[in-house]
Amino acid sequence: MEGETPLRWKLLDQPSHCEAVPSKLRLTPAECRVVIAKVNADEHRSLGERFGVQGFPTLKWFSRGKAVDSPDDYTSGRSLDAFTSFIEEQLRADAGFARVDALAPVAKKFVGAEDKAAVIQEAQGVVAGLSDDEKVNGELYIKLLTKAAEKGDAYLTKELTRLEKMMEGGGAMSAHKVEEISRKISVLSAIVNPDVDEK
Predict the structure, then answer these.
(1) Cis, bond preceding 57 (omega within 30 deg of 0)
(2) Cβ distance 7 to 36 under 8 Å?
(3) Which residue among 44, 50, 96, 131 is the one 20 to 30 A from 198 at the CA level?
(4) pLDDT score of 154
(5) Which residues touch 55 (CB under 8 Å, ≥6 apart)?
(6) What is the pTM of this model?
């Protein structure tokens, strides 16, 4: 989980005390990288002790890139509106998910560029100087830019739409697959609409 997965929401509670916890939250495609999980801390005492669960329900927020052993305590209201507001706030704070600031100016040049190969070469130069998660994310930029150079600029928008529909479909996907698709959606959005999410 450390640095590898999207934002996660874990519900640590006991079923008999869950009436105040909504069983389903409707999430938009952008929020699909939020994983909501429920754990019975009576049945899984070691887990409850590990995360300091002393009452039910206890809610914990596990942020992407943060050590799994140091989640944030959720202390806001137990209504659906309060949960949704909290999730939206966390997602706004994580708006740069999978994006590489050093590649923003290169991505901005790509759509409409006559010499796409030169832009990809420039991106490869930037990625060569990156490390860790930024390098992995940078390689995704290269992969997507290369495909767009082969298939045309329309590929970017079509692929973004296709992936968003997959997330909306609500089919069973592993957390790894949700992260992979969320990463692609974020990077594609940065390429297709470079001015929308500039920091």
Answers:
(1) yes
(2) no
(3) 131
(4) 94
(5) none
(6) 0.63
**Token pair in block for residue 73:** 């305590």
Q: Which token pair is 147?
A: 């495909």
Q: For residues 19 and 23, give the distance between their C-alpha atoms in angstroms, rounded to a whole number.
A: 9
Tokens of 11: 């519900």
Q: Kindly give, in sequence order, each residue whose CB lies less than 8 Å from that of residue 42, ignoring residues fewer than 6 positions away.
A: 14, 48
Average pLDDT over residues 89-100: 81
pLDDT digits (tens, 9 = 90+) for 114-137: 999 999 999 999 999 999 989 999
